[in-house]
Write a structure and sequence with these properties.
- With 126 residues, the chain is an alpha/beta fold.
- The chain has 2 helices and 8 strands, in the order E-H-E-E-E-E-H-E-E-E.
- The mean pLDDT is 90.
Length: 126
């Protein structure tokens, strides 16, 4: 039996919601729906929001391992890994030193230190 709950938002903790929100808005072409000094909400696909929330003393994840684990990361579907990697790095991301499967996934780090992946393995009609 299907429930009535639905995915409403994915929230990302950070020290500067405005800056990180702008990075993702530009990278993904999303629309800013709400902003305050401590919170930014971007409208994503369908009715899912991507939000950024200020957290005091935010600590950057150590990826792939270390004392501050990655708790969540985004998998972003792309058709051209090289072109999108170059574009996203131009927006302010950095490429992680460790690349487990660079032919199919690239691990990038957003300006607030969150690892995320771009991959060519998610079909457009998925």
């Amino acid at each position: 039996m299907a429930g009535t709950a639905r995915l409403g938002a994915i929230s990302i903790d950070c020290a500067d919601p405005a800056a990180l929100g702008e990075f993702y808005r530009e990278m993904l072409g999303l629309e800013e729906m709400m902003t305050s000094p401590d919170f930014v909400a971007l409208k994503g696909a369908g009715s899912v929001f991507l939000t950024f929330q200020r957290v005091a003393d935010h600590r950057v994840a150590d990826w792939p391992e270390g004392p501050v684990p990655k708790q969540l990361h985004l998998e972003l579907a792309v058709s051209d890994l090289n072109a999108e990697e170059t574009r996203i790095i131009g927006l302010g991301a950095t490429k992680a030193d460790v690349q487990p499967q660079p032919d199919n996934w690239r691990v990038l780090i957003d300006p607030a230190g969150h690892p995320f992946c771009i991959t060519n393995l998610i079909p457009e009609d998925a």
